[in-house]
Amino acid sequence: MRENGYCKFVFIGAGSSVFTLRLIGDILKEKSISSGHIALVDIDGKVLEETKEAVIHLIQFAKREFEISSHTDYMQAIPDADYVFMTIATGGYERWKQDIRICTDHGVLQSVGDTIGPGGIIRTLRTIPVILEIAKAMETVCPDAWMINYSNPEGAVCLALQKYTRIKNFGLCHGTPDTAQWLAEKVFQVERERFTYRAAGINHFTWFTDMRIDGENVYADLNNALKSSGMDKKEPISAELYRIYGCYPAPGDRHVGEFVPYYLKDKVLEDKDYEWKNNDFTVVDGWREEARELFDEVRIHNRGYEKLLEGSGETAANFIRSLNTGDISSEMVNVVNRGYIDNVSQDIIVELPTYIDQFGLHPQKIGKLPDAIAAQCDRLGREYLLMVEAAATCSYEKALQAMYLDPLSANCLYPELLLQDLIHANLDLLPEAWSNE
Predict the structure, then answer these.
(1) Segment 75-106, tens digit of pLDDT
(2) Burial class (CB within 10 angstroms; exposed 0-12, middle 13-18, buried 19+) of 94
(3) How distant, in Å, are the alpha carbons of 15, 218, 284, 333, 342 from that of 43?
(4) pTM of the predicted model as reported, rounded to 2 decimal places
């Protein structure tokens, strides 16, 4: 932050319109930021201009002083940036759907397909080169800026940034805080403010190591609370993992089920009728339609601003406040393990509580996770090491090793053929070196 609370924010992937608007709403509510420049970047010029129009309306409604610009080339936007938000999805929504179709043809089911599994691997190969290119440019034109990553696979992107660049960065995910809110309000049925916790693990596969209400440990009451509230039936996979491992996972069945291959089998899904089956995008389409309706309400009908200023649930603004003012906050962050979790290997990307002040990020020491959970995190973290190296160096060998380490690949008869099909279907979005595979 510069003098008088001025900041320059850059949103790369601003075509994620409502998500961008909600993050900007958080910025507009933040009292430590008095004014600034918001630069919107997207390769889709039409969506970009629509987003710019909606942002202008939102800023006018909030009565704040911000310059707005839009760019199809990120190099025009990042000079002098203070914070660069990364919300890209290389290939967009349709390519995500294609990933699921190809994996399904090979017998691999994925309830999401953007974090782990063959879908997570190919998304990593598509996304990492683009983000590393942007980060390398930032090293030159805005070396003091922070990159705030929201792009998936969150863990892989953060690992790549911390391993291959010098840019200051952190990755955020609302999954664990949202699960904490769900546990408080739906399971224990208390106000969220009374519920405190510690959690750690891998992005989209974190584990609560402590949970308290009014300072009193309530973990021993969790099993009864799940049953009496009926929430063990709402998230049955999470409840079963809690029974098996002794810690409750986050962020819900839709994600955690992908990390354990036994749940995403045709016969199991038929017998158990879990809510989150192979991703047919029906629910995601509904979310996108709701977002589009809100976007059009703001942009076209000039109303609905209050919804964008009521808080996104994301934590970026908390970080910015702490970095700007020194007020200490604690949030879940993706960082490379440097002894924070004793029984997970060094250099593996982990997600854990982190203090933030004007000097930066200070990850908290967790100690040991239960051995079985640590082993899961270690294996998955090692897969991310392979995925990121494959993406950064265009190594087919490392990508294939990641496929054979991946839990969901166990449901595939011929993992290498699946990898080859995914690569060939994405050659237009991958570095040219992949054309030789």
Answers:
(1) 999 999 999 999 999 999 999 999 999 999 99
(2) exposed
(3) 8, 49, 22, 28, 43
(4) 0.95
Structure tokens at 333: 């962050």
Name the percent of the chain in helix, strand, coil, to the closest 5: 50, 20, 30
What is the largest distance, in Å, between two alpha-carbon atoms of the chain? 62
In terms of Cα–Cα distance, which of 332, 320, 30 is closest to 171? 332
Torsion, CA 242, CA 243, CA 247, CA 248, rounded to 10: 20
Q: What sign does the dihedral 146-152-158-161 (CA atoms) show?
A: negative
- Taken as a whole, the chain contains a residue count of 437
Give bridge partners of residue 207 from the DSSP assignment.
Answer: 200, 249
- Closest Cα partner for 40 from 72, 2, 79? 72
Concatenated DSSP letters for 200-245?
EEETTEEEEEEEEETTEE-GGGHHHHHHHHTHHHHSHHHHHHHHHH
d(CA 186, CA 403): 37
